[in-house]
Amino acid sequence: MAAARESLLDAAGAALARRPWPAVRMVEVAAAAGVSRQTLYNEFGGKDGLARALVRRAADGYLAGVERALAGGGDWERLTAVAEWTAAAAQQDALVRALLTGCWSERLPAPPRGPAPVPAQRRPEPPPPSPPELVRIVRDRAVTALSGPGTAPAATVELARSCELVVRLALSCVTAPPGEGGIAGLIRTAAPRTAL
User: Fold this and answer.
1) What is the Cα–Cα distance from 72 to 113, expressed in whole angstroms?
2) DSSP state of 124
3) pLDDT digits 0-9 by tens, 143-188
4) What is the CA radius of gyration of the chain?
5) Rounded CA gap, 185 and 6, in Å?
6) Is 0.85 surpassed by the pTM of this model?
7) Taking a C-beta distance cutoff of 8 angstroms, is the pair 146, 139 a contact?
8) What are the pLDDT digits (tens) for 50-66?
């Protein structure tokens, strides 16, 4: 069923790229995925469950990209890569942009809130992180990736501030793209290097 689930999410994402979420029909999503409408309902419980899974997948994909950005290079290169990934992911995917900014347009599914009804055979999708939670998650992952064993508590606090500043700079670039020098130039100018 994992293949059917991914096919359904791909089909729903493609439909969302063509038209607003309220105009997306479940029968069309199922047909595009090559499965029955009953399979879609068995998997997600309904349109709300499909929307929740689609938004959750966007959040998970964004966070996987953060992990890739933190995987190699020097400390500042990794933080710059996180910031550049954040801006690029938000530019490419309206769901990621909404997750990061909290600005949900009428074209998108409503942001999932609270528990969602799901078929008995499925576990409920956890709600996606809110914008402040995403900032905290990315900051904490960056701190973990950049701090070594035996890092002094004061240095960890300063590193956390620098990482959060970089994440918040990246978010500002989502809504107002930077000019000359790009995101890397902003980070070099604004983020204190003493913590790294």
Assistant:
1) 35
2) P
3) 999 987 777 888 889 889 989 999 999 999 888 888 887 888 888 7
4) 19
5) 38
6) yes
7) no
8) 999 999 999 999 999 99
